UniProtKB/TrEMBL annotation:
Residues 1-16 form the signal peptide. Transmembrane segments: none annotated. GO terms for biological process: cell redox homeostasis; cellular response to stress; hydrogen peroxide catabolic process; response to oxidative stress. Its EC number is 1.11.1.24. Keywords: Antioxidant, Cytoplasm, Disulfide bond, Oxidoreductase, Peroxidase, Redox-active center, Signal. The gene is TSA1. This is thioredoxin-dependent peroxiredoxin. The keyword DNA-binding does not apply. GO terms for cellular component: cytosol. It is found in: Cytoplasm. Residues 1-128 form the Thioredoxin domain. Pfam families: 1-cysPrx_C (PF10417), AhpC-TSA (PF00578). The active site is at 15 (cysteine sulfenic acid (-soh) intermediate). It comes from Bactrocera latifrons. It catalyses: a hydroperoxide + [thioredoxin]-dithiol = an alcohol + [thioredoxin]-disulfide + H2O.
Amino acid sequence: WVVLAFIPLAFTFVCPTEIIAYSEAAKKFAEKGAQILFASTDSEYSLLAWTNVARKDGGLGPVDIPLVADTNHSLSKDYGVLIEEAGVALRGIFIIDPKGNVRQSTINDLPVGRNVEETYRLLEAFQWTEENGEVLPCNWTPGQLTIKPEVEASKQYFEEANK
């Protein structure tokens, strides 16, 4: 599994909060068999320089996730997050399964960051459905009721959920 996230630019304001938060959660994602990658239209040199700036100064410091330099913008274009006239990516995040299928995509406009816990919940949910063949209701978290995707069998969920 891969969690591929895009950021607009290095040395900006929301981006370090996201990269640091996802980096701090990288081990938790790895335990679920998922690798987190962050891509930017910046050069590898700019991204490297950003990791050499202290967090208290708006830098990243050391991070536990790869930063991908998408200098030719092909990755950003392929995932539909590139703002062509600005040459930067929107805040897209994609959960990709081992077969290369995009299982989840969210694209935020520039001013709003993403939620690590929601990304993790979605990863768990897609992995659960892959392993169990059932579907998951709104706001599902591990341990909650699931739905068998058949008309008669699904009634068990609806009866239990609507007591």
